[in-house]
Design a protein that fits this description.
The protein has nine helices and nine strands. By secondary structure, it is of the alpha/beta class.
Length: 235
């Protein structure tokens, strides 16, 4: 049975309506006020795409730096050796190592949000696939987390870079900020993410690409957005 706060927030949302982006985020702010707790809720977006991720050429995966950040400072683990370890530490990495860090992770250490590695460390990191893969933490050159430019990668991770990938059902889940953000800042973060997802439409995807979008806070109800507004910009 939903709690009193959730029910009050749900009453603010017309479940049969598809809100404009601006209106949707204004309603979301109203729901976060009603479900406010001791901690700052995360605002998430679920994007339903007309793709079949089982086909490699229809996978939608990427990373983007949100203009207003995510509302939390990411803890970054870096796999590097020699001078690159010094570079990583100087750039603000929280944990730096090679085989020693891999062993620690194998033993259950997971106190980080992002993993970055230099290309020469992927032999070591590869062995952690079963641990890092299911959590979406495996470094990948496509999203800039396998790189020699550690300073840039760490700065982006700390500055609000998020990674996203379509799940089996073709849905992309991603955070776009915190409940304490203004509606305008949440909307800017959202637009930055959606613009990239729209540009990534696979050539082999048939029919409607952007099928649905729902935004919600951790404790709040889902708010459906009108996809026509976005589709019209990308004709």
């Amino acid at each position: 049975m939903p709690g009193k706060k959730f029910r009050a927030a749900a009453e603010k949302v017309d479940r049969n309506k598809r809100y404009s982006i601006t209106e949707g985020f204004q309603v979301l702010k109203q729901t976060t006020e009603l479900t406010k707790g001791k901690w700052d809720q995360t605002v998430d977006v679920a994007v339903n795409l007309g793709i079949d991720p089982k086909h490699a050429d229809q996978m939608v995966r990427g990373a983007v730096v949100l203009p207003h950040g995510t509302g939390k400072s990411a803890r970054v683990a870096v796999f590097a050796k020699g001078e690159k370890q010094t570079e990583a530490t100087t750039a603000g990495a929280d944990f730096v190592g090679e085989a020693d860090l891999a062993k620690k992770i194998e033993e259950g250490f997971m106190d980080f949000d992002t993993v970055i590695a230099t290309p020469d460390m992927m032999g070591v990191v590869g062995r952690l696939g079963k641990v890092l893969g299911p959590r979406g933490l495996m470094p990948n050159p496509k999203v800039g987390t396998v790189t020699m430019d550690l300073a840039k990668a760490i700065k982006e991770a700390k500055g609000g870079k998020i990674e996203f990938r379509a799940e089996k059902a073709g849905i992309v889940h991603a955070p776009v900020g915190k409940a304490s953000f203004s509606a305008a800042n949440l909307q800017e973060n959202f637009n930055t993410l959606i613009e990239l997802i729209m540009k990534m439409k696979p050539a082999t995807a048939k029919g409607v690409y952007l099928k649905g979008i729902t935004i919600s806070s951790t404790m709040g109800p889902g708010i459906k957005l009108d996809t026509q507004e976005i589709n019209a910009r990308h004709k």
